[in-house]
Design brief:
With 567 residues, this protein is α/β, with parallel strands linked by helices. The protein has helices spanning 2-29, 38-51, 68-75, 129-137, 158-167, 190-212, 216-220, 236-241, 243-250, 252-265, 270-347, 354-362, 367-411, 425-436, 446-449, 456-477, 483-513, 516-521, 523-566, and strands at residues 56-61, 86-91, 96-100, 104-109, 117-120, 125-128, 142-148, 174-179, 223-226.
Length: 567
């Protein structure tokens, strides 16, 4: 009997582990678009909760006078039913539930043969006796079907036998027990016992085979034993004192061996396993998995297209990066030459020629310098921005095509594809406007891009130019005008103008060398580069998930195989 319990506990742990893995398999499958109903998840969770701490359940089926309780006690090794430490946990006219030693549960079904009805006060509905019996007996790990040895199967039993062993499919976990076998055989004579048992066994097999339409294999697999729970009616006290003799004459060891074999084979979990295999495993692996594999195949094709976009865009951005580097080099050279020339011209001016310099090189409110600076920037950035704007528009068009194909997969639960890698509408509108404008700055105020506001060099030069007429009048009107003093002031002003031009030069060069130069003059470059890097991240993520999918699919096959092996 202890071996039966151990087999039960081993099977219990095995099934719990298998159902837990199945639960994890379903949860992980949601990453790949697996859609399992809430009802199935709840059913699986309930099965796990039920199995935790599940006792070894033994259902006793037979008439009132067949000695079922005594047989159960002997099977448990108790001999005396009074020592079974029984506590009735549930009782009705149809069944009686007994908890024994916190490890076993006896389900007694007195008066099986015949219909009874009772009111289920919990459900407030009338249930037929068979429905009540089915509720409890179907959960049993072992069925002890106790029969009268003299007349094992009566005609009145036929209907119930069909119901129990065909409708409820309890045969694989049932031991047919011929009770009080000492009344039909000399249990002290092993040969007589074996001869009588073979006759009775054959009789039971033939009757069951006929009634249940069993195959030869099913008939041969029947578990039939003959026992005597109280040989020769010696009484409990006598057998308590003569346990060795009881073991020999009762043949209870045969019953224990049969139950151990049954539990080792299926442990009463066959129904649960088979139902799980049919309702969940088959649904996932046969119906849903091909669809998921098709989705994964489509996804891989689209991801390959996306990877091609990445390769193309990365190559184009590398070319543009080199062009930007060249543009920065050219701008440094141009502005160095330009401002150095301006400084040299300023240094060569006098009170009489400064006005001509301002008109020629500075312009009204610095318009000439401003135009010149813009010209340098435009010359170096226009073609690059045209290329970037074109690339941005084409990039979004490529992503749109892929999004159309992948969109349906996202709706089916592949949430890792939901990341938006398109450039936003504001960026695309700016790119299109830039193409219309021929690559010129859109929304960029060059003065705001520079530190000095207003430009010091322009203001100072303009102020000097404005003051010249007054200086000229003073020279003509008063001979006492201190030419040396004014010349000194002019020199200071010119020196200040040179310093401002040099500051302006330094500021522009600093702007060119800063990281923000690209953000200010090529804003789409950074956004496009970030999006292309997101493609790389998505591709790596997809490769990782593809490996996970392969492992997940393999685990599903292993789980299915293990379900089949124990079903």
């Amino acid at each position: 009997m202890s071996e039966t319990l151990k087999n039960h506990q081993d099977n219990q742990a095995k099934v719990i582990n298998l159902l837990s893995r199945l639960e994890g398999f379903i949860i992980q499958g949601q990453e790949f678009g697996l859609d399992v109903s809430t009802d199935i998840k709840a059913k699986l969770k309930n099965s796990l909760n039920t199995l935790q701490g599940d006792k070894l359940k033994i259902a006793l089926i037979g008439g009132f006078s067949e000695g079922k309780t005594s047989i159960a006690a002997a099977w448990l090794g108790k001999i005396d039913p009074a020592t079974m430490n029984i506590s009735a946990s549930e009782s009705s006219n149809a069944v009686k539930i007994y908890d024994i030693d916190e490890e076993y549960q006896l389900i007694d079904t007195p008066g099986l043969y015949g219909y009874k009805e009772q009111v289920n006060t919990d459900a407030q509905e009338i249930e037929k006796y068979k429905d009540i019996t089915k509720k409890y007996v179907s959960e049993a790990h072992i069925i002890l079907y106790v029969m009268n040895s003299k007349n094992p199967i009566k005609e009145s039993h036929v209907e119930d036998l069909k119901w129990l062993f065909k409708d409820l499919n309890l045969l694989p976990r049932t031991v047919f027990v011929l009770s009080r076998f000492d009344e039909v055989a000399d249990v002290e004579d092993e040969l007589d016992y074996q001869d009588k048992f073979k006759i009775k066994e054959q009789n039971v097999k033939e009757r069951l085979s006929l009634i249940l339409s069993l195959s030869t294999q099913d008939t041969n697999n029947l578990h039939i034993v003959a026992v005597s729970a109280n040989p020769f009616d010696e009484g409990v006290d006598y057998w308590m004192e003569n346990r060795d003799e009881f073991e020999k004459l009762s043949h209870i060891k045969l019953l224990q061996n049969s139950t151990s074999e049954i539990v080792k084979k299926n442990g009463g979990y066959t129904g649960l396993i088979e139902e799980t295999r049919k309702s969940i495993i088959s649904d996932i692996l046969i119906k849903k998995l091909p669809e998921i594999e098709e989705q994964q195949s489509l996804l891989s094709k689209e991801m390959e297209k996306l990877n091609q976009v990445y390769e193309i865009e990365t190559g184009a951005l590398n070319v543009i990066s080199k062009k930007i580097a060249n543009a920065k080099t050219n701008l440094r050279s141009s502005f160095n030459g330009y401002f150095q020339d301006l400084v040299m011209q300023v240094q060569g001016t006098s009170l009489e020629t400064i006005g001509e310099f301002v008109v020629r090189e500075v312009g009204d409110k610095g318009s000439i310098i401003s135009s010149k600076i813009n010209e340098y920037f435009q010359n170096e950035t226009n073609q690059i921005n045209i290329a970037l704007n074109t690339q941005a528009v084409n990039f979004n068009a490529e992503i749109d095509n892929i999004d159309t194909a992948v969109g349906s997969l996202t709706k089916k639960g592949l949430n890792h594809l939901a990341k938006n890698i398109k450039l936003d509408n504001t960026t695309i509108l700016a790119a299109r406007d830039g193409l219309v404008a021929g690559g010129q700055f859109i929304g960029l105020n060059l003065k705001e891009a520079l530190k000095f506001q207003p430009w010091g060099a322009v203001n100072l030069a303009s102020n000097i130019n404005t003051a010249l007429p007054l200086i000229g009048i003073a020279v003509e009107a008063w001979d006492t005008w201190n030419q040396a003093k004014k010349q000194e002031e002019f020199q200071l002003a010119r020196k200040s103008l040179v310093a401002n031009l040099q500051n302006q030069q330094r500021e522009i060069l600093e702007l060119i060398d800063k990281d923000e130069f690209i953000l200010k003059f090529f804003p789409i470059y950074k956004e496009l580069k970030d999006k292309v890097e997101e493609i790389k991240s998505m591709h790596m993520d997809h490769e990782s998930k593809t490996k996970s999918f392969v492992s997940w699919r393999k685990e599903g096959g292993i789980i299915e195989g293990e379900f089949r092996s124990i079903s």
